[in-house]
Structure formats: C-alpha cells, structure tokens
Amino acid sequence: MTDRTPSGTESIGGGATLFDSTLSAHAPEVSAAKATRFGTWYVAEYYLRTMRRYGDVLLADAVGSPLMYILAMGIGLGSLLTGNQTLFDGVPYLVFIAPALLVSSAVQGATSESTFPVMDGFKWHRIYQGPLVTPISPRQIAQGQMLAIVIRLLIQSSLFMVIVALFGAVHLPAGLLAIPIAALAGMAMGLPIMAYSATIREEKGQFSIIMRFIFMPLFLFSGTFYPLTNLPIFLQWIGWISPIWHGTELSRWAMYGHAVGGWQALIHLAVLLVLIAVGFVLTRRHFVSRLGGTK
Amino acid sequence: MPHITPSLTSAPTRTGGVVTARGLTKRYGDFTAVDGIDFEVAPGESFGFLGPNGAGKSTTMSMIGGVLTRTGGELNVMGLDPDREGPRVRAHLGVVPQQDNLDEEIKVRDNLYVYGRYFGLKRAYLKPKIDELLDFAQLTDKAGERVDALSGGMKRRLTIARSLVNDPQILLLDEPTTGLDPQARHILWDRLFRLKEQGTTLLVTTHFMDEAEQLCDRLIVVDHGRIMAEGSPSELIRDYSTREVLEVRFGSDANAAAAQTLKGLGERQEILADRILIYAGDGEAALAQVLARGLTPVASLVRRSSLEDVFLHLTGRSLVD
User: How many CB pairs below 8 Å do chains A and B form together?
Assistant: First the structure.
C-alpha cells in the first residue's frame, strides 16, 4: 500500500479538510427533485462516460468493420459482379449496400450494448446497486441506459455517414435522415434483447447465441447484399421480422431514393416503433421487478 | 443515554428519531427475515445492529433506504415513508453496501463524480468536494488510478467517500469492515469516528463485537430477525454477562470430563468444543478455584466480558461461525 503517511504506516492523520469545509451540498429536497426530473439523464451520463473509455474500440467497431465491408463487398465484389454497371436499383453496388451496412452496424452496436452491460449491471459488477441507493429509481436506471445507447448509435451512425460521404455514396442532405433511421432500427433490435437480458440470472453463452443465431441470420437475410426479393419466398420471412430489413429499406430511400411507397414506409416505421415500444415497456418492467424498489 | 423504544401502543408517527421502526417486518414466502422489530435512532447517534449472518440486518438497511418494500409495520425516515417516498428518503442518506459496487474500470475520482451526479450535484460543487473526500479517505494520490488497482481497504474507504458526496445526515454502513485486515479496519473506524464527531448519524450492521464496541453508542442484538436485547455496549455487558471471563482449555478430549468437575464454579459457564468459559466477577479467583479442584488446564486466560459473551448468553451461539 502506498498511502501518504508520515511514519510509514497508514496513520490517522489528514482528513481535516472535510470538517473545515465551507462546501455544502444542496438540500436533500433539491437532490430528490432534480433526480426525479433528470435522473434518466444522470444515468445516461454515467454510461456515456464509461463508453468514452472504450472510445477507440467503439470507433474501430462502429466504423472499421463496416469500412471493411465497403471495401471488400462494395468495391471488390461490386466491381467483380458488374464491371462498372449497376446491379440493383440502378445505382452502383457501393451505394446500394452502404445504407444496409449503416443500419446493420447500428443494430450490431445496440445488440452488444443490450447484452453484457446488462449482466454487468445486475450481477457481475452490480453497477445498478450504485444508483439504486441514491434518489434515482430503478425505472430511471433502465431508461438512462437506453438513452445512452440511443446517443451512442447516433454518434456511431454519423461517423459512418462521414465515411460513406467521402466515398460519394450518399445523396446529401436527404441521406442524413438515415442516421436517426439507423438508430431506430438499432433500438428496435436492442430493446427487446435488453428486456431478455434483464431476465437472465446466469450467463451461460446466451449472448453469443444471440450474436450468432439471431444477429447474424438477420444481417445475412435482410436484403443487405441484394434485394430481399432475390431470396426464395420461404426465406423472405426472416427479412419481414428483421429490424435490419425495415431499417435498410427506409435508409435506402433516404440515401439514394430507393422506391418505397408511402404506406410501405409507414409499415416499416410502424414495425420498428412497435418493437421499440414493446422492448421499452418490458425492459423497464424487468428492471423494476428485479431491482426491487418502490417505484 | 438515549430513549428506550416506546411501547407498541404509541402512535406510529414521527417522534424525535431520525429513523423509527415499529413492528417492522419482511417476509419472503414462508421465511421471515425481519420479524416485527422496534427501534428508534436519535439524531447524531451511532446505532448498531449486531447479529450473525442471516439475522436480517441487511434486509432492515434495505427497507430503510426504500430499496426493499416492507411486508408489515411502520417505518419512518426523516419524517418520510421509504416505501412511498424512496427518492426523497435516499436523498438524505449515504449508503455503504456490504459488497463494494464501485465501477472498477473508471478512475477513482470519476467514481465519486458519477455518484454525485445521481444527486443532481453540479460540477462546480463536485470538483472541490471530491478533493476533500479523497483527502478524508486518504486516497488523494490514487485519484487518477483505476479502481481495480486499489487494495481492499482502499476500495472500502472509497465507497465510504462516495457515500458522503451529498453531505448525508444519515449514513448506513452494512458490515463496513468485513474482509479487511486489522490495520485497514482501524483506519476505517477512525474515519467513521470522525464523522460521528461531526454529527452524522451512523447506522451500522456488524457481526463483529469489537466493531460494535468501537462504533456504537447503542445497539440492538438481533438473531433470526428478532431483537434479543438493546442498550449501550457497556449496559449490555453489565446486564447479560459478568465483569470477567475465565477461559480454560483442557484439550478436546478432556473438556467434557473437566466440565463435570467444574460444576457450580462462577456465575455461569459455557462449555464449547475447544474450551470452557467461566463467567465470574473475579477471573483470577476463579482460576485459583479451578486449580484447587485439582485440574490443570493446558491454557488459561482471564479477560473482560465482551459483546460476544452477551450474544453467546442470549442465543447459546457464537457470532461468527
């Protein structure tokens, strides 16, 4: 131990300043009132702070891996398949897959934020026990974590959009709409998974199963690399239930004017919003019941 | 000497206590963790819950913070009902949980900052406050390190520093020094004693009798969710034990036989697996009588009675098993 000590042992000196202090916190009533109003944001602030320490990893994950797809599939495979001709929707292949990669990247980010960090909160490091004994409520703990994920997705999608713009593969400014669309698609996947994660008492590989057998098939069968209609009909249903497909259809519409009818757009949006609403309600309910609590 | 618990018939309203419980009960199905306990903690008092693991101490703490809802009885914290006003109650409290739940991967300083934000405290207040708290916890030169680089004692001190970020009037300490080495415990006790001197009300659970003796003005001895006795450490020892205790050992095989010979010696005896405790006003005199009865102990010790003896007398069991 290397505590500051005059005599080599940890002494009982020091610590006087706490009692000479002129600093005083605002009254408990103020704490309670502020936490009641802004508690969700305070929790989100904590998560954003912890995400910052993984900033480089998150950045590499958010931008690096889609960039690899862009290079490998969009440019490499794209040119191999078509020469300089267009294959789908009358646009270069890179333009065709960029919206899908944007959405998939957000969905993947939301999936990982909705699994291990939840276990960390309930069990591994009992992170939720910290705010639980402050004026913050269990409901706000859940909401704050969700809000932080939304913010992460918006940042990550914006960075991705910059790269796509550098390749000239998006129509601006209309394409910027794809940023919130990607965040919506991410939450439509993330929140139901978060609701499930909140019920897990012991992690026995469920999370890698989610990654391999839920995220990966949805990624591959959601019209990511070719239109969904290219798949035989018995595989197309995977796209219909996939937030990635609904998000991709909308972001293609925003980024290069892919033809989506008004009522189709509404259905895509409605599917995403319903998944988000169900995930939100269930996650909050599971947090409140598991963290005990009175509110 | 603070008040003794008023009778059950008194109105369940707030009296002089910062925490008042009447018939407080917590049941999980058939299991009763806390079985109708009454207590009242006065402002500035250091109040202890002494009992073995599973006595219902932590459950009581959680109910005080409104983190657990009670099954029955009345509970009042700073004039508020924790079940209905959880956030308002917790705004008055500092809580040191039994297990540290610091964020191991962020810096020592950031742990305090993040926690302060949960109370809506502003950066302008938190920055200098955190410096003071780190100084108080003797962690100033660890401010920029990650928590996982700290020793167990340092983590505990950081958890206590964290609980003080909102200047709480009431500090709940659940087994504050369990798992720490003796030196680290003494440092921690010193810090807590300073808080008490400053006027902070302390509620401490412990299964260490020395901790209860060090920290508590008054305590309740709890077992199986019930209160067995209540008073100051010295009152409890006076009421439930003798001034001195003679401990004699005869080797595990000879203990039972020796106990036969020693019958009637002292005011009371406890025959344990490895030794016999003889409760007497004068331990040396009792030892002389043991020798006079023709027994030669392998080892003998005369000591003052402690809360451990009180617990043994009340429950027939040892605090730490």
Answer: 162
Token pair recorded at residue B70: 């009670």
The residue extents of the domains of chain B are 19-232, 242-304
> What is the strand order of the sheet B72-77 is part of?
B31-41, B19-28, B72-77
Show residues of chain A in contact with B97, CB under 8 Å. 129, 133
Residues of B in contact with A132 (CB under 8 A): 67
pLDDT for B6 beyond 60 = no
Q: Per-residue pLDDT tens for A9-65?
A: 444 445 455 666 678 889 999 999 999 999 999 999 999 988 887 778 877 877 787
Single out the residue of B47, B49, B52 nearest to residue B37, CA to CA.
B49
Shortest Cα distance, chain B CAs vs residue A153, angstroms: 22
- Distances in Å between the alpha carbon of B66 and those of A54, A132, B121? 34, 10, 21
Q: Domain boundaries in chain A?
A: 28-290
pLDDT of the residue at A293: 52
pLDDT > 90 in chain A, percent: 67
Residue A40: list chain B partners with CB under 8 A: none
DSSP secondary structure of B135-150: HHTT-GGGTTSBGGGS
Which chain B residue lies closest to A17 (C-alpha atoms)?
Answer: B132
Across the interface, whether the CB atoms of B120 and A42 are under 8 A apart is answered yes
* CB-CB contact of B230 with B4 (8 Å): yes
Residue of A nearest to B162 (CA): A130
3-state class (DSSP) for residue A168: coil
ipTM: 0.86
What was the pLDDT predicted at A286?
97
Q: Which of A49, A134, A295 sits opposite B119 (nearest CB)?
A: A134
| Amino acid in position B28 | Y
CATH number of B19-232: 3.40.50.300
CATH: 3.30.70, 3.40.1360, 3.80.10, 3.30.1370. Which one for B242-304? 3.30.70
In this predicted model, what pLDDT tens digit does every residue of A84-128 receive, in sequence order? 567 788 888 889 999 999 999 999 999 999 999 999 999 988 899
Q: Which residues of A touch B183 (CB under 8 A)?
A: 9-10
- Choose the closest CB to A294 out of B84, B125, B184: B84
